[in-house]
From TrEMBL:
<dbReference type="GO" id="GO:0016491">
    <property type="term" value="F:oxidoreductase activity"/>
</dbReference>
<keyword id="KW-0560">Oxidoreductase</keyword>
<protein>
    <submittedName>
        <fullName>D-amino-acid dehydrogenase</fullName>
        <ecNumber>1.4.99.-</ecNumber>
    </submittedName>
</protein>
<dbReference type="Pfam" id="PF01266">
    <property type="entry name" value="DAO"/>
</dbReference>
<dbReference type="InterPro" id="IPR006076">
    <property type="entry name" value="FAD-dep_OxRdtase"/>
</dbReference>
<dbReference type="InterPro" id="IPR036188">
    <property type="entry name" value="FAD/NAD-bd_sf"/>
</dbReference>
<feature type="domain" description="FAD dependent oxidoreductase">
    <location>
        <begin position="4"/>
        <end position="394"/>
    </location>
</feature>
Amino acid sequence: MKTDTIVLGAGIVGTSIALNLAERGRSVVLVDRRGPGEETSYGNAGLVERASIYPTAFPRSVKALLDVALRRNPGASYHWSALPGLIPWMFAYWRASAPARILDYARVMDSLLVHTVTEHQRLSAASGAGHFFREGGWLKLYRTEGGLASERAEFPLARHYGLTAREVSIHEALELEPSLRPVFTGAVLWSDPHSVSSPGGVTQTYAAHLPQLGGRVLRGDARTLARFCAGWSVKTEEGAVEAPNVVVALGPWAMDVLRPFGVNLPLQVKRGYHMHYRPEGNASLARPILDEEGGYVITPMQGGIRLTTGVEFAGRDAPRSPVQLDQTEILARGLFPLGPRAEAEPWMGSRPAFPDMLPVIGAAPGQKGLWLAIGHQHLGFTLGPITGRLLADMMDGVTPVVDPAPFAATRF
Ligand SMILES: Cc1cc2nc3c(=O)[nH]c(=O)nc-3n(C[C@H](O)[C@H](O)[C@H](O)COP(=O)(O)OP(=O)(O)OC[C@H]3O[C@@H](n4cnc5c(N)ncnc54)[C@H](O)[C@@H]3O)c2cc1C
């Protein structure tokens, strides 16, 4: 089978790329070993986090570092065995998190973020996924005055980028979310983000639209990627597919396919867990809630209230250790009347992350016809559709919607 472009990985990133290319008249085959949207793009907190101009930075203060090291911060955990291999990556992450570099990060990230809600709206209108989306922003809760003060310090930059963050009283927070219990001292409503009731459902609905644009979704193992004449081939359940262009959008698994071609990039993972709960009685949520110092998010989803945990530094394939879920569940039960767990086992996924906290979007160095869209870390669900548009612009050789230079793989 011959096609213009093979897209490897049917998460939100690969699916959005395939749709953008197909909309422009390219023939596209989207290949995944599972169904679309069944991995990281399934299990996230469902935020289209348009307002995330501040990075999830490496802790800078001694106290914050000690809190992580001594496991006093439920938002971060680690496996001892993973740390030696992570030292160079962690050092680069620490350097990229320097306060002096935050303004640059915000400028670069906002160039993508400003398009995130509109690009999701465009794909959801075309594919019929609108019913998954809700407005209303998200509510961040603070248990200490110090935590609230550091959030307030973000307001001026947020205003600079046209974002709306408003401190609300406990009374107003409880009016917005009547099922919460007042175990917090302050709250901030960020109005610009949107959220969804099923990120996996959104990705599947986007992918289901691809055949209407002439594309195909096939099962196959991306590790069978090989050079073929002047292009590329990959084996699928329906036979080999050949194309002059291939896009690697394999999220946490990207390096399994890229390393054999000599493309070495510092991609690591930040693992996370989720669990669904039935709310007790008539309790409900209207939007995602971040308990900042508690280190978790609760989001209303089709499957119940989804509790997602913070970061675990561990090998992608290392055994699960959902201690953060156990810790944060106690805090979340104090905040919201969570009923019983709805699943026997927690879900686990891996945020694919580069140390400078930016994705790689663009051509693979030295590999004609090989394109990359990887490393979207904490914001992949948010950034998938604009990544698709940007990469399609680059592949088409038209003026890109966003300056792609900061996302080039050659920066490493
Ligand atoms: C707990 C948690 C909460 C999060 N919350 C948010 C949030 O609220 N908002 C947000 O924007 N982001 C969030 N994220 C991040 C977001 O989920 C990811 O950045 C995003 O899903 C990455 O998408 P992707 O398409 O790159 O990867 P994936 O969704 O993982 O897709 C990669 C695909 O590649 C396929 N694949 C892998 N290996 C092979 C192979 N050998 N052959 C064929 N196919 C293969 C997989 O099956 C998979 O479908 C969260 C992440 C976690 C873990």
